[in-house]
Design goal:
Blueprint: E1 9-12, E2 17-23, H1 28-40, E3 42-48, H2 54-65, E4 69-73, E5 76-82, E6 94-95, H3 100-111, E7 117-120, H4 123-126, H5 131-139, E8 143-146, H6 147-150, E9 152-158, E10 166-168, H7 174-185, E11 190-194, H8 202-209, E12 214-217, E13 220-224, E14 234-235, H9 240-252, E15 256-264, H10 272-278, E16 282-288, E17 295-301, E18 309-310, H11 322-330, E19 334-338, H12 351-361, E20 365-369, E21 372-377, E22 385-387, H13 392-403, E23 409-412, H14 424-431, E24 432-433
Parallel strand pairs: 2-15, 3-14, 6-7, 10-11, 18-19, 22-23
Antiparallel strand pairs: 1-23, 2-24, 3-5, 4-5, 7-9, 8-9, 11-13, 12-13, 15-17, 16-17, 19-21, 20-21
Helix pairs in contact: 1-2, 1-3, 1-8, 2-3, 3-7, 5-7, 9-11, 9-13, 11-12, 11-13, 12-13
The structure holds shikimate-3-phosphate.
Length: about 425
C-alpha cells in the first residue's frame, strides 16, 4: 500500500487573471445528514449531488458497518436501510476518519440504538472534544466510555434506553444539537435543547421533510421521542463553505470574475455572504427559492475591500469560513477584528494558530488573540512556505492567499483538500491564468 506523503507540497504561483464558472461539490453538512437521517428510516432514499470528499465517505463507511446499504452512481447515492431498529452490531470499529460531524452525529444515533459499537478517528479527530456530545447523551441515559475520562475517541457505546431531558449546551454547535435531536428521536418523552446562539439548521429542515415534528423557538428546540421517520430523497445544493474560497479569491484579486453555480444559501450557514458584502465585495446573487434548502448562483468580481468586525452571534453561521475571511482581511483597508471564535482552536487543527502563522509568513500584518485574530490591511502578500497542518480548509485558504501573492508558495500536505473538495486544485488551475 502506498502511504500519502505528508511532505507533499503543492506549488502555487500568482494568478494574473481569474475567470470562469465553477460547480462546487455537494454540501458536506447536508450530505452527512442525508446519509445518517435516512439510515434511521426504514426503506430507500436517493441523495443527488452528494458531496463525496473524505468526510462524507467516512459517514458512508460507518453506515455500512451498521448494515445499511449505500450504493453510488456518480454523485447520486442510494441508501437502503433496515431503520434504526434493524442495525447490525458492527464487527469492528466504526472509523470516522477526520470527520467530526460523522463522529458526533453517529454518537447520537448509536446512543439509544441498542447495539454495542466503537467509534474511532484519525489523529486529529482523536484529539477533538467529544465530551460536548457524550456528556449530554449520558444525561439522557447513554452508556458511553472513552479515553480521557470519556471525553475523547476511541469511544465505546453500550446499549442503553434513553429518556428525554432538558439540556443546556454551552457552545453553539450544530453537531452537538444534531446529535441530541437524533438521540431525542429514539428517547422516551421530550428532549429540550438550548444553545447560546443559532447554528446551521440543516438537521431541523431534513427532519421536518421526513415527517418529524421539531419545535423551534430561536436557539431553543424540542423534540418528542418515538417519532418514526420516512425516507426522503435529497437534492444536495453546492457547498457554501467550498464556494467561499472562490468568493474571496474573486473579490481579492485585481482582475477576476467568477460565477459559482447552485450554491446552498441557507442563512444559518452562509453568514460569510453579508460579511463580504459589508467589506465591499461585489457579489451578485441569482437566487433559486425552490427546494427545502435555498440555493442560487453567485457572481463575484474584483472589489476594493474594507475592514470589518466579525463576532458574536455571527460566528456560528460562518465558523468554517474564518480562515479564508482572514485572507480577505489582509487585502482590506483598515483593521479587521475576528473575536468570539475560540471554537476555531478545536477544529481539524488549531485554525487560529495555523492561519496566523501562514499569513504572517506571507508578510501579512496579523496578530493572534485567544478567541480570534486582528488583521491590518491592505498588505501585498509574498509567496512563502506554508503548511495546511493536515486541515482541508487551511490548505484551501492558503491556496487562495498564494494565488493573490507575489512569487511562488508551497503548501505542505495540500492533499488534505480531499476531505471536502477533492477537485479544488484542478479547479484552481483551470480558473487562474498563470
Ligand atoms: C458542522 C458544524 C460545525 C462546522 C463543521 C460542520 C455540521 O461544527 O464547523 O464543519 O455539519 O454540523 P460545530 O457544530 O462543532 O460548530
Amino acid at each position: 500500500m502506498e502511504l500519502p506523503d505528508p511532505e507533499a507540497a503543492s506549488a502555487i504561483g500568482a494568478a494574473s487573471a481569474v475567470r470562469g464558472r465553477i460547480q462546487v461539490p455537494g454540501d458536506k453538512s447536508i450530505t452527512h445528514r442525508a446519509l445518517l437521517l435516512n439510515a434511521l428510516a426504514e426503506g430507500r432514499a436517493h441523495v443527488s449531488g452528494a458531496g463525496l470528499g473524505g468526510d462524507c465517505r467516512s459517514s458512508i463507511a460507518c453506515l455500512r458497518g451498521l448494515g445499511v446499504s449505500v450504493s453510488r452512481d456518480g454523485d447520486r447515492l442510494t441508501v437502503d436501510s433496515p431503520g434504526s431498529g434493524g442495525f447490525e452490531e458492527p464487527a469492528g470499529p466504526l472509523d470516522c476518519g477526520n470527520s467530526g460531524t460523522t463522529m458526533r452525529l453517529l454518537l447520537g444515533l448509536l446512543a439509544g440504538c441498542g447495539r454495542f459499537a466503537v467509534v474511532v478517528g484519525d489523529e486529529s479527530l482523536s484529539s477533538r472534544p467529544m465530551g460536548r456530545v457524550a456528556d449530554p447523551l449520558r444525561r439522557m441515559g447513554a452508556r458511553i466510555f472513552g479515553r480521557g475520562g470519556g471525553q475523547l475517541a476511541p469511544l465505546a457505546v453500550n446499549p442503553a434506553s434513553l429518556s428525554g431531558t432538558r439540556i443546556n449546551v454551552p457552545v453553539a454547535s450544530a453537531q452537538v444539537k444534531s446529535a441530541l435531536l437524533i438521540a431525542g428521536l429514539g428517547a422516551s418523552g421530550q428532549t429540550r435543547i438550548s444553545q447560546p446562539a443559532r447554528s446551521r439548521d440543516h438537521t431541523e429542515i431534513m427532519l421536518a421533510a421526513m415527517g418529524a415534528r421539531v419545535e423551534i423557538d430561536g436557539a431553543e428546540l424540542s423534540i418528542e421521542g418515538g417519532q418514526q421517520l420516512d425516507p426522503v430523497d435529497v437534492d444536495v445544493p453546492g457547498d457554501f463553505s467550498s464556494a467561499a474560497f472562490w468568493l474571496v479569491l474573486g473579490a481579492s484579486h485585481p482582475d477576476a470574475r467568477l460565477r459559482i453555480e447552485n450554491v446552498g444559501l441557507n442563512p444559518t450557514r452562509a453568514g460569510t455572504l453579508p460579511v463580504l458584502e459589508r467589506m465591499g465585495a461585489r457579489i451578485a446573487i441569482d437566487a433559486n427559492p425552490a427546494g427545502a434548502e435555498p440555493s442560487g448562483d453567485l457572481t463575484v468580481e474584483s472589489s476594493g475591500l474594507r475592514a470589518t468586525d466579525i463576532g458574536g452571534a455571527e460566528i456560528p453561521i460562518l465558523i468554517d469560513e474564518l480562515p479564508v475571511l482572514a485572507v480577505a482581511a489582509t487585502q482590506a483597508e483598515g483593521t479587521t477584528t475576528i473575536r468570539d471564535a475560540g471554537e476555531l482552536r478545536v477544529k481539524e487543527t488549531d485554525r487560529i494558530t495555523a492561519t496566523v502563522g501562514n499569513l504572517r509568513a506571507m508578510g501579512a500584518r496579523i496578530e493572534e488573540r485567544p478567541d480570534g485574530m486582528v488583521i491590518e490591511g491592505p498588505t501585498p502578500l509574498k509567496g512563502a512556505r506554508l503548511d495546511s497542518h493536515g486541515d482541508h480548509r487551511v490548505a484551501m485558504a492558503m491556496a487562495v492567499a498564494a494565488s493573490i501573492a507575489d512569487g511562488e508558495s508551497r503548501i505542505r500536505d495540500s492533499a488534505a483538500v480531499d476531505i471536502s473538495y477533492p477537485e479544488f486544485f484542478g479547479e484552481l488551475g483551470r480558473v487562474c491564468a498563470a
